[in-house]
Task: structure prediction
Amino acid sequence: MSESPASALDCSGDPRNCEILLQRAEHHVDRCQEEGIIGPDAVVQATAVGLVIEVWRNGPVENMHASRRGPSDAAMFAESTALHQEAVKALTARKRGYGLLDFERHLLDRERPWAGAGGRTLTDLGYGFLGDYKQHVKARANALLDLNRHTCVHDPLEVYLIPKAIMYGRRHMGMPGWPTIVERIRILLSHPEHRAWGEAGRGAQAVAEMPSGQSIDELASTLLTQPDTLPVEVLEWLSDHLLYCAAPPYTWCDTAD
Result:
C-alpha cells in the first residue's frame, strides 16, 4: 500500500501532479480499507481496473459502442475483462514503463480479435473512430508514463488509478464486489422466481433461453476469473438477462428467500 513522503521537494515530476498525488495519498490507505481492497494482490487487481478505465473505457470506445458497427454490450464486457488481465501484466512487469507501452500496443493492434466480438477486430468495430481512439489511448498512456516517474509517493499509479476504479468500476471483475455479483447471478439462475428478476416470468424466460452446454456452477466459475472466454452466445445471453439485475446497487438479500 502506498505511503507518501512529507513533501514533493525531491520529486522531478510536474509539481501540479505532485500536489494531486499527495492529496490523494493522504486518504488512500483508509479509502482502500473501506472498499475492501486489502493486500498486495487486491491492490494490483484494483489498479488494473483503473488502468483499463483510464486508457480504454472512458473514451472514444464509448462512441464506437454506441455506433451501428461497434461492439455490443456483451463484447464491451468481455473485452474489458480480457484487458484487465493485460493491465495486470503491465503493472507487474519488471519495468513498468515497458509494461505500459506493451499495454498501449495491445490496445492499438488493429488486427487482434476482440473478446466477445465473434472474431471482429478494432478495424471492424471502430470504423469512423480509429483516429480519435488512437489519439486517446496514446495520450492517456503517455500521461501515465509521466506519472509513473514521480517519486513524491511510493506508487503513483496505484494512488491515481484506484480512485478511478472505485468511482467508475466497482462492478468490474478485479474489484472486491465481483465475487458477490457472480454469486447473485448463480442464485438468480437457481431461483427463477426470485423477486430480483423484477418482471414476472423474466427469470423463467432467462433459464429457458440459457445456451445449451452451460451449467450454472460452471458458468459461475468461469465468470469469476475468465468471463472473456465464454462463447459469444453466452455473453449475449448474460447481457440480455442477468447483468442488469445482479450488479449493485443491491435491493435484495443474499439468499433466495
Remarks:
- The longest helix spans residues 73-92.
- The chain is about 60% helix and 0% strand.
- Residues 148 and 252 are 41 Å apart (CA to CA).
- Confidence is low (pLDDT under 50) at residues 2-6, 248-257.
